[in-house]
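Here is a typical protein record:
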Amino acid sequence: MGIIKPTNKSVESFKGLHLYHTGFSNCAMRVRLALEEKGLAWESHPIDLQKGEQLTKEYIGINPNAVVPTLVDDGVVIIDSADIIDYIDQHYTSGSLRPQSKQDESQMYQWMYLARDNHLSIKTYMYANLGFSDKMKRSQQEMGDYRKNQTFDKALLEFHERFNSNEGFSEQDVVNATQVIDDCFKKMDERLKDHKWLAGEEYSLADIAWVPQLIVLKAAKFPFENYQHLEQWKEAIMQRPSFKRAILDWLPQMGK
């Protein structure tokens, strides 16, 4: 996915780094973490998901998936958070966020893509367990517009069709999503039993890709007590200065 040509040409005149995002979005969190970890200046463009600002023609013209985040770098538009953080680290080389060895770098990408490929399972669990999920449901007109305008990601469209249907997610849908998440966290916990970080010996894009999942799933009361090594890993990340700037400053309630 990565770099795309937007139909909303207004962003092509942007100078510097611009991020379209929202506070409580795991995908947006990982991009903010990468930007802050590398000490990059960026301009914020908040998108209110509950107001449906991601569904406007103006925004879909920037990101055809109608999701956050979107990064614009001197007019270059990058979508998909895994691709965005990889782009950031490759184009702004100071303070590398990748392991030195090719083997560890390959492992880093495996963790990043695992986080990306399972994002619909996490969304299913979140939407099924957060009390405000009904507020995220779209009207028939909104779904009609979404169907018409979002032609880029069929899996995401199917997810929203299911969520906004009269039946919503079935109990089995939630069970299946929970199993996928559990498998991922078991794999992470096994790695972290003998290592401080997910890939190599330093904090990397692999860790940045995964820690936001713990943050949003905690809000949905996911049972993290089953993974004894994840907590120490998360705490180490939360102590980094970038965490405050990227997460707490946008979600101040987390610091309470």
Notes: DSSP finds eleven helices and five strands in the chain. The chain has a mean pLDDT of 91.
